[in-house]
Amino acid sequence: MRSLDQKLLRELWRLKAQVLAIALVIASGTALLIMALTTIEALEETTTAYYERTRFADVFAQTKRAPEQLGRDIAEIPGVRLVETRIVEGAILDMADFPEPVVAQLLSLPERGPQLLNALVIRSGRLVDPTRPDEVVVSEPFAEAHRLRPGDSFDAILRGRKRTLHLVGTALSPEFVYAIAPGGLMPDDKRFGVLWMGRDALAAAFDLQASFNSVALSLLPDADAKDVIRRLDSLLAPFGGAGAYGRSDQTSNWFLESEIAQQKNMSRVMPAIFLAVAAFLTNMVMARLIETERREIGLFKAFGYGNWAIGWHYAKMVLVIGTIGVLIGSLTGAWLGHWNTELYTQFYRFPFLLYRPGPAGFVIAGAISVVAALAGSLAAVRRAVRLPPAEAMQPPSPPIYRRSWASRTALAGALDEPSRMILRRIIRWPVRAFLASLGLAMSIAVLIMALQWVDAIDSLAETAFERGQHQDATVAFGDLQPIDTIGDFENLSGVLAAEPYRHVPARISHGHLVERQGIIGVPGGAILSPIFDVERGRIEVPSGGLVVSRKLAELLDVKTGDTVAVEFLEGRQPRLSLPVVQIFETYIGKPAYMDMTVLNRLAGDGRVVSGLHIRVDALSRSTLLARLKDIPNIAAVLFRQAAIDTFYKTMGETIFIFIGFFVVFSMTLAVGVTYNSIRIALSERTRDLATLRVLGFSRWEISYILLGEVGILTWVAIPLGAIIGFCLAWYMTSAFETELYRVPLVLRDATYGKAALIALAATLICAAIVRRRLDRLDLIAALKTRE
Questions:
Q1: CB of 377 within 8 A of CB of 207?
Q2: Helix (H, G, I), strand (E, B), or coil: what is residue 560?
Q3: How far apart (Å, rounded) are the C-alpha atoms in residues 361 and 374?
Q4: Is 757 helix (H, G, I), strand (E, B) or coil?
Q5: 16, 46, 108, 144: which one has the fewest Cβ atoms less than 10 Å from its Cβ?
Q6: What is the mean pLDDT of each run of 10 residues along the chain (787 residues)?
Q7: Half-sphere exposure of 217 (CA within 13 A, CB side)
């Protein structure tokens, strides 16, 4: 083995604790990057394979009632490969194990032959028998939530008629990878299920013989989707078409794609923080090592070693540290990636999981990590190779000591000598002290950014569900109902108040920007579910024009006073130009509101409602629930408290786990920075501390001199970390903003306090470890002068 390689191994073993601390920081950044990259790869590969195997459609459209013959005209649209017409209807289920009405979506299955598009994956049992009209296949998550198995039965209200349905199989569908009820935000398998019935049975139940009300299309590879959608809308318009849309706007796929996009955001931000700190730590260690080996470097050059050989020697040390970190991070990241992907499959239901991470993610993560470590040591290595032999053989010039302004202050006079030593060292090397504080501040910032999500989720739920909504339940009708329906519901036992709303699906455009967004009609003086701004509170609905959310205004690039083109997608489908009279902020969705009376007039449907918000008497709740199951034309019943519970349950199962990850990684970051800072300080001051011991200072006094500096730097790091953490939290909340929800930037005092306490705990652990080493300090060895 070459002499330089032997020296390298000795140095690595001598610095093993510091090497491990840096390697763990590198491993944290590598693991986070690999976890994100492999999760993205697995989700994309699983999604692509699932969609291909089940022939997931490219275009979807709904209509009121269209003749079956229209399917042939749709198939002739240029670019269309396959067309499948079907029936899609809503129903209310009466489950024996659940007191609330359960919302169901019914989809038809072909009577003859397999499904052309959106094919089911049977998980248990079989498909329905066309000769048995009461057989159904249900979605697997719904069956699991209600413990249903093939052979079980339950009641359903189909267009006002109660029928007993017999379960013959469970299945998964590419249309419902993320299955949420109409108007819902999170999957709730207890309250929403998907059922498939035979086409003839469903047509007879809803009076749609020889007709369809939904159609799915697959396109040729080179087809123009926008042109196909435009032509399809034209064909369906006479039959009550509600506007076709592409796969990107399909609810389940849209949620899934949004989640993948958020994973990509995380892969860009979080690993960069850890790798930047790893570069900083590497620079600290290498700079100190090279400073103490000036004489050896001079000897190397005197014996004929060139700059390249010496530089490569120190670079290999960095490569070894980086490789150790990459290996630990790769193993950890691969495990976390698989675990993270499996966690996602609890919410995004796939029949299989393809976790086959290729080498690309590991190579990218490893290369970035090693390059970051090398970049951090580059300046120190460059100084080593540039030292002339004669200069390197000499000890470094001692620093110039002079009395500073701080020593003349009253505070300096009031301090004891050990405290003055601490402050003097910090003032003489302010850059080094600041960098050490900055490294620890980054670990505090990461903690603050992670813990901020708890505050944000609480604020989002409080604003959206408690301050902005005051109804107990929302009843949605399958068809428009006359406004007199309000009185009928107010007379129901258990209903304290009822407030109507109108919903019209629409396409809103401004210039070349187009958004498919329904318009909600709100009555004047609405109380139960008013227009609510997160800062201004309740907003009174204006008599004319649109009130749009900030997110929708951004997507359409409009401001107050601008005019937008609105195309209603139901009824007479009028096309209008409406002014934007107000913009408000909301954390959920991108809604648009109008006065309900004005909306009804523009739609030309008379005084009708789409549904009601109701307040429920808790004492009569069970009676009302039983009554709602028997009322015809109810398509959905959504309970506010259930939405809150589901929101917290879903977010809690993911966010708190990720917060735990980041707490562990941040602790690793804090320990790495703190331990290396203390060890480097001990290496630099070993002779000085030993001299003080000989002069009569106690062990506690020299411990105070060494560790007091780190303590001051830690206290400086806390407010600095709070500032950086606020900036990171702001960036992450901006990066994770989607059309579905915006995470508010909320940081409570307790969050700062928790992050500071965790960082202090890491500092105390490192200080205790080094304190033991200081107690075993060999005074004679430390005071020896190197000849």
A1: no
A2: coil
A3: 20
A4: helix
A5: 16
A6: 78 80 81 85 90 94 91 93 93 87 92 90 92 92 93 88 92 92 80 92 90 94 90 89 87 85 74 72 70 73 78 83 88 86 82 84 82 77 71 62 61 69 76 79 83 83 84 87 89 90 91 89 90 88 88 92 90 87 89 92 89 90 84 83 81 69 76 76 75 79 80 87 89 76 84 87 82 68 55
A7: 30
Residue 579 has, within 13 A of its CA and on its CB side, a CA count of 8
CA distance 43 to 41: 6
Strands, DSSP E only, in 152-255?
Answer: 153-158, 161-172, 192-198, 211-219, 245-246
β-partners of residue 164 are: 155
- Matching residue, tokens 């009928």: 488
Is the distance from CB of 255 to CB of 77 less than 8 angstroms? Answer: no
Residue 465 gets which letter from DSSP?
I
Nearest Cα residue to 38 out of 481, 428, 286, 335: 335
Domains of the chain in sequence order? 88-107+132-200 (2.40.40), 419-468+640-787 (no CATH), 495-616 (2.40.70)
Helix 640-694 to helix 749-775 angle, to the nearest 10 degrees?
30
Rounded Cα distance between 544 and 548, Å, is: 13
Compute the CA torsion angle 285, 287, 293, 296 (nearest 10 deg): 120
**Tokens matching residue 717:** 């790091």
Chain centroid to CA 316: how far?
Answer: 38
Q: How far apart are CA 634 and CA 153, in angstroms?
A: 21
CA 660 and chain centroid, separation: 15
Q: What is the CA radius of gyration of the chain?
A: 34
Q: What's the Cα-to-Cα distance from 243 to each of 228, 239, 246, rounded to whole Å?
A: 12, 11, 10
**DSSP code of residue 588:** B
